[in-house]
Amino acid sequence: MLLKPRVESDELKILRFLNNRMILPVKDKKRYIYLEKGYRGEMFFDQLTADLQPKFYIINDLCLEFNNSVFQIDTTIIAQDKIFPIEVKNYEGDFYYDNDSKGFFTLAKDEIKNALDQLKRSKSLLNPLLKKHGFYLPLEGYVTFVNPEFTLYQAPLNEPIVYPTQLNKFMEKLNKIPSKLNERHKKLAELLISMHQTDSPYKRLPPYEYHQVEKGLTCAKCQSFVPSVSGKYFTCICGYKEDVETAIIRSVREIQLLFPNLKITTNLVYEWCMVIHSKKVIREVLKKNFVVVGDRHLRYYI
Ligand SMILES: [Zn+2]
Q1: pLDDT confidence tier of residue 54, bands split at 50, 70 and 90
Q2: Distance 48 CA to ligand 1 centre (A)
Q3: 174: CA distance to ligand 1 center in Å?
Q4: CA 99-100-102 angle, 5° bins
Q5: Which residues form the NERD domain (predicted)?
């Protein structure tokens, strides 16, 4: 039973918008691609856990803190006698495991994040955190590699890793675990969800300003800039059709996320979208869907 669905992080959303509207510095572009890929892998894994029998509680994407250390768990499955913290990795391509250094490397010998270490760290923090709140269920963690194009050479045999070809078996194995949840498990799940932290993404972003980013209305599906809009609907070159009202609301949300300090006014949205030629239409949409603050000439929307 899913108790906490996964949502896209603000950081991913902002980087996606920025990537579309400016040239990101190399390091931020890399991070954007990493986050986008990671999210897709997690969504894929969510589809698998969605089919598990309802005898488990499933909590997606937890960010917790214990003893001033922050840790993240991609998927947490609570069963009657055990908790399964699961790390989901969407690595694609050929990698190898080096037994001496216990590290993961690309074939070009670049070391990548060690998912086993990440899992170990999460477990070592989750365990005392739960004990502190009076929960003593043992933890059984796994690292799952979900991309079908992932290969690991010299894979270690005795590590809790689930490879792409083993995912279905893994789900079957989970389904076979006898489990009956009670109020105590519910309390545990609610505790974890209540401790989930969402931190501000703004400190990790590259510097950007309003005048630096390209303006224009973008397609909700393929992100390309919409060349022109006439009437109540428009169709992107990708074939996606959207009504103008939804597109304006979406654009306002984008401005709000990118520039939380800017006041949303008719003129600002007009300038941002570029292809909606009626300020009256924009004003009506803002009035209908947002809260008006201030008097006539200083009016803005939240
Ligand atoms: Zn499109």
Answers
A1: very high
A2: 29
A3: 40
A4: 60
A5: 37-149
Q: How far is the CA of 220 from the centre of ligand 1 (A)?
A: 7
Element of type H or E holding 143: strand 142-145
Buried b (16+ CB within 10 A) or exposed e, 13-22: bbbbbbbbbe
Q: Taking 90 as the threshold, does the pLDDT of residue 298 lie above it?
A: no
Q: What pLDDT does 226 receive?
A: 93
Residues in the chain: 302
Distance 226 CA to ligand 1 centre (A): 8
Output the CA 218–ligand 1 centroid distance in Å: 8
The predicted model gives 140-153 an average pLDDT of 97
CB-CB contact of 247 with 220 (8 Å): yes
Tens of pLDDT along 205-236? 999 999 999 999 999 999 999 998 888 999 99
The rounded Å distance from CA 221 to ligand 1 centre is: 5
Ligand 1 ion local residues (Cβ < 5 A): 219, 221-222, 236, 238, 240
- CA 239 / ligand 1 centre spacing (Å): 6
Q: What is the mean pLDDT of residues 71-98?
A: 97
Give the DSSP per-residue string, 179-215.
----HHHHHHHHHHHHH-----SGGGSPP--GGGSPP
pLDDT tens column, 29-49: 999 999 999 999 999 999 999
CA of 6 to the centre of ligand 1 (A): 24
Interstrand relation of 150-153 and 93-98 (parallel, antiparallel or unpaired): parallel
Report domain extents, the chain.
2-202, 215-301
Asked which of 4-13, 159-168, 262-271, 289-298 is least confident by mean pLDDT, the reply is: 289-298
Centre of ligand 1 to C-alpha 229, Å, is: 13
